[in-house]
Amino acid sequence: MAKFSWVGFLCALTATMLWSSLYPVGRLLMLSGVNDLDPLALTWIRLFLSSVFFIPFLCLKGSGGTLCQAVKTDWKKLLLLALLGNVGEGYLLLASLCWTTAARASLLANASPIFTVIIAWLLLREKASWKMLSGMIIGFAGIIVAMGLTSGADCFGGGGLKGLLGDGLALASGICWAAYTVCGAEISRKYSDSVAIMTIAFAALILLPFVIFKPGCLASLLALPWQGWLVVLYLALLVNGWANILWYRALKTLSAGALGSFGYISAGLAAVMSLIGLKEHFSLTFVLSIVMVLAGVGLMLTPKEEK
Predict the structure, then answer these.
(1) Can you say whether the dihedral through the CA atoms of 113, 114, 118, 121 is positive or negative?
(2) Which end of the chain has fewer CB atoms < 10 Å from its terminal CB, N or C?
(3) Reported pTM
């Protein structure tokens, strides 16, 4: 029997719990103020604050040489990961929260395990066991059930054509995250959590010109009250920075396919948070879909037997 890594599991679970809060908190932050916060502005400020805090932190821990070596040797790979996992996934997800509910965005974004397994097989030839494939199918069936329902609403409203646009953006963010997880597997074993922080820094630099020149983008940040800035700090330092570090530590001991299955747990947690915090409307069928995806997790995380 393959040895199960509790350290990797706990790191991935903690990161997942932090990321789950992004859906309700992000939607609340962008739509509850006098002026809506631009998702591009929120994406950039999260990346920027994470970089400013965690790069000096890692240098104090003695990882400064590793950071420099990563940039010097593998800057192309870091750039690709930044585009996939921070620019692509980060912006598309926050943009989706402007149009659809947090629970629906979470379910679609966390369809990423489906694409993680597929991309891992295409690029890494990583084989999936019958349990992983079965769990993937059951979880995806749960998502299909949820998406077949009439678009839900929360305290901000929701549904209609705008809801469909938000659903599409959320699904696209999930595909970006799947590619990020698979493409980052090898380099994470080489540089550990330094990879996560450097991709965040690269992404902040990539988005900076867009933030400066997009009309009203910086103004939406400056209009935030101090309570909004506390939420931004939470999203930047914990949900973005610390969660990414934990994710890469988990990637050192868990396969890309198994790690991707944590997206199903995120979907369930985000749904509960959305129900409580945003008063989203849930039906019994929607609850059934969440049970299905969580059941799929159990199968996907079961260690496969060695021959």
Answers:
(1) positive
(2) C
(3) 0.82
